[in-house]
Amino acid sequence: MKLKSILSATTVLAMAATTAAADKAEVQFWHAMGGQLGEIVDKFAADYNGGSDSCQINAVYKGNYTENMTAAIAAFRAGEQPHIVQVFEVGTATMMAAGEKGAIYPVHELMADAGVDFDQSAYLPAVVSYYTDTDNKLLSMPFNSSTPVLWYNKTALDAAGVAVPTTWDEVEVAARALKESGVTKPFSFGWQSWSNIENYSAWHNLPVGSEENGFASLETEFTFNNEAVVNHIQRIADMGKEGTFVYGGRRGDSRAQFVNGETALWINSSAYYGGFKKDITEFEFGQAMLPLDTAVADAPQNSIIGGATLWVLQGHESPEYACVADFFQFVSAAEQQAYWHQETGYVPITNAAYDLSQEQKFYESDPMTDTAIKQLSLNTPTPASKGVRFGNFVQVRDIINEELEAVWSGQKDAQTALDEAVARGNKLLRKFEAANK
């Protein structure tokens, strides 16, 4: 073939590829997954795009959960909203309120309108129950769900001569032994409201607020300044005074303490598994269920989820929404969810993905990676352990962070700090209620 002919053929092929891409309905998907998690999200989008003749998913990282949600709200007001936005669980009440004003396209409606076969019962009850309306209809698509677990450095525990703690009394004993054996920051945690107030409460079947933790009504008030939670927070503060607890910051800021061996007991999301498997090479690590406070309960109830779901925003064309529904079906399939679960530590959101992981003998090759699933499904959730659904809870968590940090620094005792957190939080609840009546 002559050079001119080759160039002509190449140009035609390139134009055809461009035309095919242009003919696809494009969907903007804003997410909050950075690093390794973001790479997997990009892989899902690329895999889907490669298999679709009519749809193009553009996955865009917009910062952390708060930044992503804030950007989406601002974009909606400007009429430039994405089709899909990933919102963390504490933004659920805010998104539901937006739905009342016509901003949200509920997932159950989306799937029905698109004619996609959708069975809500295929999803884990502990996940689905968090994101349904009062008629038990799914509002957003479950995607990445996790729960806090107790991460431990087995090598350090063995050297200190102590077992993995199962109670808070044992956490104190183990932390002292670790300190004596040379571990500089024996115990720590991240996402402190989620792990040590919300999940501590659910684990011990204690309400965080009235009205079934906000599920039953907007007329809710916080109650986490109760005796059990106050004593729990004061216990940790006292551990800080003796040097067995060291606060390492909000979110996952203290992750490095665990990875480098400074901390041997660390409470945070099960979703750190993928990163730990890659980054921790100097010691053996594992995960266990959350410790039980035996002064409060004889046995644990269940933990509650964190992570996020995919919300669909109104204002786009029908062909694009058909692509959204098709993409949701793709990412919810057992193969994608089992891969996501095994690579990250997030729980498989469907029973099929859990079954596939068992068939693939993942829990045999990677022991204890089903800890999060067992915690979430330990017992039938009660009104106190179903989850939390409070308005303005993103801002309330900031308040809780401020008050707890005052405790860790010795500026306030636990009772004073939690009383003030409740009072300040209740003002935000009333503000949210007034805006959404």
UniProtKB/TrEMBL annotation:
Alphabetized UniProt keyword annotations: Signal, Transport
Primary localization: periplasm
Protein's UniProt keywords contain DNA-binding: no
Subcellular location: Periplasm
GO cellular component: periplasmic space
InterPro entries, A to Z: Bact_solute-bd_prot1, SBP
Residues annotated as signal peptide: 1-22
Top-level taxon in the UniProt lineage: Bacteria
Subunit structure: The complex is composed of two ATP-binding proteins (UgpC), two transmembrane proteins (UgpA and UgpE) and a solute-binding protein (UgpB).
NCBIfam families reported in the protein's UniProt record: PRK10974.1
Annotated protein name in UniProt: sn-glycerol-3-phosphate-binding periplasmic protein UgpB
Gene: ugpB
